[in-house]
Amino acid sequence: MEKYEIKSEVCVYDDSELSAEDREIVNLAKEATKNSYSPYSKFKVGAALRLADGTIVTGSNQENASYPLGLCAERTAIFHAQHTHPDQPIVALAVAAYANGHFYPEPISPCGACRQVMLEVEDRYKHPMRVLLYGASGTHVVNSVKDLLPFQFISTSLEK
Ligand code: THU
Predict the structure, then answer these.
(1) What is the pTM of this model?
(2) Which residue minimizes the CA distance to atom 5 of ligand 1?
(3) In which domain, by residue range, is 76 found?
(4) Could you tell me if 94 and 31 are in contact, meaning their C-beta atoms sit under 8 angstroms apart?
């Protein structure tokens, strides 16, 4: 048997430690929770991403009476950004969640489908995307989606 370890690096910042640029998208992600359409889960998620040219795009989760048709905040923002700015890498994506009258205390953890979509963005632009996961106790930051998804299925995986 062989055994190996996979490491991810995560930095935790309180609000005052975040750069002004990062604080801006974290705040916009929190703000975006207000536009969530989540009558079923009542779990309001907001996302705000920054493109390489500085443009900011936001999104929120959009649910449906036919439950599986709903879309997460991260993918709402990513797909909108890729449609409107197809030539721009996404350099950072912030996510926040609001439920039961307060922001989620722990860093919101993107679902597996969103991680896979984020990975495609990194692969498409050959540019890492920083991911900022807001929690009331701090913002957890990874420098690449690869830290959230250590095994990666990407375009080149199809060529092997
Ligand atoms: N959700 C997101 O939008 N992003 C996440 O990172 C986790 C989950 C949404 C999907 C659904 O509308 C609600 O939160 C509850 O799962």
Answers:
(1) 0.96
(2) 110
(3) 11-159
(4) no
Domain total of the chain: 1
User: pLDDT tens digits for 87-106?
Assistant: 999 999 999 999 999 999 99
Confidence at 48, pLDDT banded by 50, 70, 90: very high
Among 33, 72, 80, which is best to mutate for testing ligand 1, by the most ligand atoms less than 8 A from CB?
72
User: What would the DSSP string read from start to end of 20-86?
Assistant: HHHHHHHHHHHHHGGG-B-TTT--EEEEEEEETTS-EEEEE-B--SSGGG-B-HHHHHHHHHHHH-T
Task: Look up the CATH number of the domain holding residue 111.
Answer: 3.40.140.10
43, 75, 76, 142: residue to mutate for ligand 1 pocket, most atoms within 8 A of CB: 43
